[in-house]
Design goal:
GO terms for molecular function: precorrin-6A synthase (deacetylating) activity. The chain is of the alpha/beta class and 259 residues long. Helices cover 33% and strands 22% of the residues. The chain has two domains: 132 residues, Tetrapyrrole methylase, N-terminal domain (Cobalt-precorrin-4 Transmethylase, domain 1); 106 residues, Methyltransferase, Cobalt-precorrin-4 Transmethylase, Domain 2. The mean pLDDT is 92.
């Protein structure tokens, strides 16, 4: 059986090269091969940023770019994502086999590999399984709370991390007081009652084009929708997330009255 080289998943933060930790820089420098995904011409700056990080870290690794496959939007969501992951894993395997690296293979992962990122799940599909190393990175939630200069939680308070899809399908999580929402391309906060909620939103966190907005959801939601639409049109892509916090006793689970 052919032994896979080690696979290093290196978190690089949310777009600011200064987010790359010393551990990440050293790992990038020690990798033999770096695989860089291409996601289309409108997202070329994401690949360019990875190349800039490689150069700043003093990497001498071979660099191979690969085209990310698209998801089949006709399939049910879970099946769509599973098949997409299978295709990505096959591309990784073929790329590594063709390159025949004499040392570790690295992927530079946006944010952190452990928070709402599928790189670890894709790596688990490789056969034979490689030895994994994960280098943590600054997450979008850390960048968001830093940009707004707010704590993530109330004193002794819990934080629920969820997705836009789940917020749309199930409403406000039962018993939650602070909700962090990831992967929301549809501004799902519009499905929540506006009274009693405060929102902190950010896009392109840590990057020069960073955009922020915050305030009571009832008066801020529409402005965020407009900012998001304009920013996506200008750049061709967008990465954003937001934090919602309720006033105690104001939000009931499952409420779904548009703000």
């Amino acid at each position: 059986m052919t032994r896979q080289p080690e696979l290093w998943l290196i978190g690089i933060g949310t777009g600011n090269p200064d987010h790359v930790t010393l551990e990440a820089q050293l790992a990038i420098r020690d990798a033999a091969l770096v695989m860089v995904p291409r996601k289309g011409a409108d997202k070329a700056d994401l690949a360019d940023l990875r190349h800039a990080i490689l150069a700043a870290s003093g990497s001498s690794a071979a660099v191979v770019e690969f085209d990310m496959p698209t998801r089949d939007e006709t399939l049910p969501y879970a099946e769509r994502v599973s098949r997409w992951h299978d295709r990505i894993a096959a591309i990784w395997a073929g790329t590594i086999a063709a390159a025949r690296p004499q040392g570790p293979v690295a992927l530079l992962v946006w944010g952190d590999p452990g928070l709402y990122d599928s790189t670890l799940r894709i790596a688990a599909r490789l056969d034979p399984a490689p030895r994994l190393r994960v280098v943590p990175g600054i997450t979008a939630l850390q960048a968001l709370t830093a940009a707004h200069a707010i704590p993530l939680n109330r004193v002794n308070g819990a934080v629920t991390v969820t997705t836009g899809r789940r917020l749309r399908d199930h409403g406000w999580p039962e018993g939650a007081e602070t909700v962090a929402v990831m992967l929301d391309g549809e501004c799902s906060f519009r499905q929540l009652p506006g009274d009693g909620l405060t929102i902190w939103w950010g896009a392109y966190l840590g990057m020069p084009q960073q955009v922020l907005a915050s305030g009571p959801l009832a008066g801020t939601g529409a402005r965020i929708v407009a900012l998001r639409t304009e920013a996506r049109a200008r750049h061709g892509w967008i990465m954003d997330c937001y934090l919602l916090r309720s006033e105690p006793g104001r939000i009931a689970a499952g409420n779904a009255t548009p703000a």
